[in-house]
Hints:
Layout lengths: L7 H4 L17 E6 L6 E2 L23 E2 L21 H10 L1 H8 L2 H4 L6 H4 L1 E4 L3 E5 L2 E2 L3 H4 L5 E2 L2 E5 L7 E3 L17 E6 L23 H6 L2 E7 L2 H17 L5 H14 L26 H6 L15 H29 L3 H5 L42 H9 L6 E9 L4 E7 L2 H6 L7 H10 L4
Parallel strand pairs: 1-12
Antiparallel strand pairs: 1-2, 3-4, 4-5, 5-8, 6-7, 9-10, 10-11, 12-13
Helix pairs in contact: 8-9, 8-13, 9-13, 13-15
Amino acid sequence: MGCCVSSPYSKRVYYRDPADLDEVDVPARTFGTFRAGSNLIPDDCGALPGPYLQNYLPSDTDLLLYDARMDQGYGFRCLRMEYFCLFCPWGWIYLFSKGLNKVCAHLTCDESCQWVRKEYSTRSFFRIYPNRISINQPKVRWPWGFLGCGSWNADQVLNHPFDRGAFGFSVVSCGIIDYLFGCWPVYGGTVARHRCQCNGPAWNRMFTDCGGCWCEEWPCKMCFCTYRYSGLADPDEAAFACAIALQAYFEGRKMTPQDMVKCIEFWRENLSERHDPIGRKRPVCCEPYFTPCCTCRLCFQCTHLKRNIPYKDEDVTPELTAAYETYGHLTSEQRQEYQNFEGPIHRSTMCRMFGCRRLFGAKGCCFCTEGCSHCDRRAGAPAPPRENHDFDDEFDASTILMTILGPPTKKITIQRWRYDPESCSDVMDVYPSETILLDGHDTNDNPACHARHMMSGTTP
Length: 460
């Protein structure tokens, strides 16, 4: 899978009835060797079915699970000051690696000036399906768009299947060209897709079953090991929806849009920082000491300007009026969200803008600095528990799916460490439990009971 398996017909196992993992001759799919970030990664990535073989997937691959809200200021990214770096030697290297055509497609002012008129606002999308992520970022064809030849702006639809480098999703705080000066998301937020499944402490895994380290540390999300999706109005919700769809693909679940809505509602009510900025405020390094930071609220308002219809009355159609009214409503809503949440919560201090949780350890500033206390772990054993526990560590996509939709089939085996706040210790959760196996009944008979069992570590 991804960078690990690129020969699907020779490596993967295709079941006789892939939508039903309860078959006797189907090998069990195990989870636990790779520690969870936003997702639980299967131990045998090569056994997953191909994402485009409809007969081997439980869900309809053409079923739209989630359509993310796009930021209406994304068209102004052509005005970023970082493009002045193209005139230095490092910029020449960037031009050589990317190609002049691709770079010039970002330097045009066509999107910022005609964001609504040329349908950039309605044709840009970020959509999640049961087997892939589909995006569209229309561009002006250079140089033909400027010479009046051919189509002026062309769609660029890309499909990223879940079996090609998708091992988790997270929001990028700063340090990328998609933000103003690499720090302020005035053109929309960015979601990172992790390309590597090697997660957990590095030191005790270098010579066992992983051969590498996890990309969850703060520098990885900023610099490498990720693919970025930009221009999102609510990147936190988009990253969560991606993780849910990916985990359902891993576990062979049948996923519907109604199931996605239930999971997102649970996330909003219990985990979302946007919907409770005080009670669910994520900790960052250096607090309670901090350095105040500019929120760039005025810059955000400049990229979300009011637009007027440039035609006379006889040329104005009801559809055109509706498009401009929709744009006005979205920009007003996004300006309010940035003023109430993104600016004062995520950009109010330097530490919050950079987003690292701590100096050392998982999600920390220094790379590969967790795991020195678990050097006795053996290859194939469940990933060791975290040395530092955060608010949202235990609520990965697998746990939420089990809570909302019930547990997966008994052919799915999960072994993982979980932090118990009551005993202030780490406990091992095993699914399915011995009680479920001896009982002989399908776990879907009482999903709520077994979901609580999985989350609490008690016997149902």
